[in-house]
Automatic annotation (TrEMBL):
GO biological process: sterol metabolic process
UniProt keywords, alphabetically: Heme, Iron, Membrane, Metal-binding, Monooxygenase, Oxidoreductase, Transmembrane, Transmembrane helix
Family annotation (InterPro entries): Cyt_P450 (IPR001128), Cyt_P450_CS (IPR017972), Cyt_P450_E_grp-I (IPR002401), Cyt_P450_sf (IPR036396)
A Pfam family it matches: p450
Keyword Oxidoreductase set for record: yes
Location(s), subcellular: Membrane
The protein's name in its UniProt record: p450 domain-containing protein
The keyword ATP-binding is annotated on this UniProt entry: no
Taxonomy of the source species: Eukaryota, Viridiplantae, Streptophyta, Embryophyta, Tracheophyta
């Protein structure tokens, strides 16, 4: 009897504890539902609606309607996957710092993964991410890029001589894509003009068009066209990697371009530290990131200068001061770029208003409790730039252009200005983009004046893109 009472006294608290825990779990699950919203049709969901909003430049309005209806967190289906949209400074911090905690992965949408490759920097985690990022930064860090300012300078001047000089009208965006592509070919790939480069430029834009697409692989879809273009681009780059490897073996400099640099990095056993697949995927990723983002930024700077004579005059004054201290034909230097402080503040304010990257995706590695909701394991998390860039509590009068906002960058709250992302996974190509932009603007404003021809409206693909390519009438200026 005493034994029975002893067992009972032991079991009763255990049963009560078990019941209490179960009740807590049930009540917790009730307190933590899925975010509000609808997933819509399988695979398609809200993808078409979001693409239409981007095309007609109503993406911000589309987001505002969602947030007014559902609040700062909601569920939907984008690019074939169940997705949770979150926004705000705290959301940005959560997105950009959670990769190191095992909560989120940088895994992109299926189209992005299929096109850019599953070994690109966005997909890698932990040691692999650090290994590949460190390798890329050997080439992309400021100390290395200082060596390539003259090479960028030459590409910009050659481009203006070929495509701007002697012309009465030009479409800016296509030409800026040509410029950024030529610099990519020279600095990142290291192959010269010729049939292979022409083939590359033919397929590369088609490849990138599929990154933001519905992953339906049928012959008539843009996704299918993009996959076929991806196969051609990868063959060209893979052949290039093999050629660079042979050149390295014959004593070529490891610092002549990004691919050669990556091939030259060795581990303790004198083996290539970065695999061929990683070089292929990351070269493609860096080329894609640098191709449309910087060309978009320069295009919108030219659009700004045409619409805002005061800003144009201030940028021109800064650039003329630098030009008048250069000998005829002398290239810009790193020191010259450090003097272009106002021009870069103008560029940052332009990116605040017209971020080249609309947003991005992460993937939940486990069930996540966020803002009183559950984000299930495997779901996609979608973040956007514009919701903090246009937040009047962070940037007063957010629709007004004001480059002085960036005079003291320390005053801007962390994770609120995010055109390059943030945290440990901030874009490694920031300095590359800065140099390319400043060199291009220096020669454009010193050599030409322009005015808009007609409409300057724009849409997103998802990069902001002027509807008519930004057609301008140009007249030459005499450089000092």
């Amino acid at each position: 009897m005493n034994s029975f009472i002893t067992i009972l006294l032991f079991l009763v608290p255990m049963i009560i504890l078990l019941l209490t825990t179960t009740r807590r779990r049930r009540s917790s699950s009730k307190r933590l539902p899925l975010p509000p919203g609808s997933l819509g049709l399988p695979v398609i969901g809200q993808s078409i609606g979001s693409f239409i909003a981007m095309k007609y430049n109503t993406a911000e309005k589309w987001l505002d309607q969602r947030t007014q209806k559902y609040g700062p967190i909601s569920k939907l289906t984008l690019m074939g996957k169940p997705t949770v949209l979150i926004y705000g400074q705290a959301a940005n911090k959560f997105i950009f710092t959670s990769n190191t905690t095992g909560i989120l992965s940088n895994q992109q949408s299926k189209p992005a993964r299929m096109i850019l490759g599953d070994r690109n920097l966005l997909e890698l985690v932990d040691h692999d991410h650090k290994r590949v990022r460190d390798a890329l930064m050997l080439f992309l860090k400021p100390e290395s890029l200082k060596l390539y300012v003259g090479k960028m300078d030459g590409e910009v001047r050659e481009h203006l001589d070929m495509f701007w000089e002697g012309k009465q009208q030009v479409k800016v965006l296509p030409l800026m894509r040509t410029l950024t592509f030529d610099i990519i070919c020279s600095l990142l790939c290291g192959f010269e003009r010729g049939p292979r480069r022409d083939e590359f430029v033919e397929f590369f834009p088609t490849m990138l068009d599929g990154v933001w697409s519905i992953p339906i692989n049928l012959p008539f879809t843009g996704y299918n066209r993009s996959l076929r273009a991806t196969a051609r681009v990868r063959k060209i780059v893979r052949d290039l990697i093999h050629e660079k490897r042979v050149q390295l073996g014959k004593g070529a400099s490891p610092y002549q371009d990004l691919i050669t640099c990556l091939l030259s990095i060795r581990n303790d056993n004198n083996e290539e530290l970065i695999t061929e697949e990683e070089i292929l995927h990351n070269a493609t990723f860096v080329m894609g990131a640098g191709y449309e983002t910087t060309s978009s930024l320069i295009t919108f700077l030219i659009r700004l200068f045409a619409n805002d004579p005061a800003v144009h005059a201030s940028v021109l004054q800064e650039q003329e001061e630098i030009a008048k201290n250069k000998l005829s034909g002398e290239s810009l230097t790193w020191e010259d770029l450090t003097k272009m402080k106002y021009t870069w503040r103008v560029a940052m304010e332009t990116m605040r208003l017209f971020p080249p990257v609309f947003g991005g995706c992460r993937q939940a590695l486990k069930d996540i409790e966020y803002e009183r909701y559950i984000i299930p394991k495997g779901w996609q998390i979608f973040w956007v730039c514009c919701k903090t860039h246009m937040d009047d509590s962070i940037f007063p009068e957010p629709t007004k252009f004001d480059a002085s906002r960036f005079e003291n960058q320390a005053s801007i709250p962390p994770y609120s200005f995010i055109p390059f992302g943030g945290g440990p996974r901030i874009c490694p190509g920031i300095e590359y983009a800065r140099i390319e932009t400043l060199v291009a603007i220096h020669y454009l404003v010193n050599r030409f004046e322009w005015k808009l021809c007609g409409d300057d409206s724009f849409s997103r693909r998802p990069m902001p893109e002027p509807s008519n390519g930004l057609l301008v009438q140009i007249t030459p200026r005499k450089m000092l």
